[in-house]
Prior knowledge:
Distance between the termini: 25 Å
Mean pLDDT: 84
Number of helices: 1
Low-confidence stretches: none
Order of helices and strands: EEEEHEEEEEEE
Strand content: over 45%
Structural class: mainly beta
Amino acid sequence: MIGGSLKQKNGQVLAPQTKAEKVQVEIDGEQYSLADVLSMMMQDPVETISVNRSADIAAGESYTVPQYVVGASNIAVYLDGLKASCGENGVFSEVGTKDAVSTTIKFNHAVAKDVEIIIRVGR
């Protein structure tokens, strides 16, 4: 249980003896515990960079990435420096069961062999 005073941004006390059992944070429409979010933010992200592959990556082809948690919004993909959107209608999709660890994504469109891919996974 967390205890303390609930305050406005200007410091004015709204409720002097506030207690909370669980604080939730919403990120991209998903709910996460504050403890989990703070834990992820305290760890260094992992990055991989892929440049000049020998072949294009076909649409729907599995692509190996650093370990991430499916659905936790902790993986970001950049193609030639531009952040790619995730999801069925996005540039890539996460592969696996929600809240499970995965090391695979799938690109929903072909990616040319000379496109720089940066994968960033927050821990």
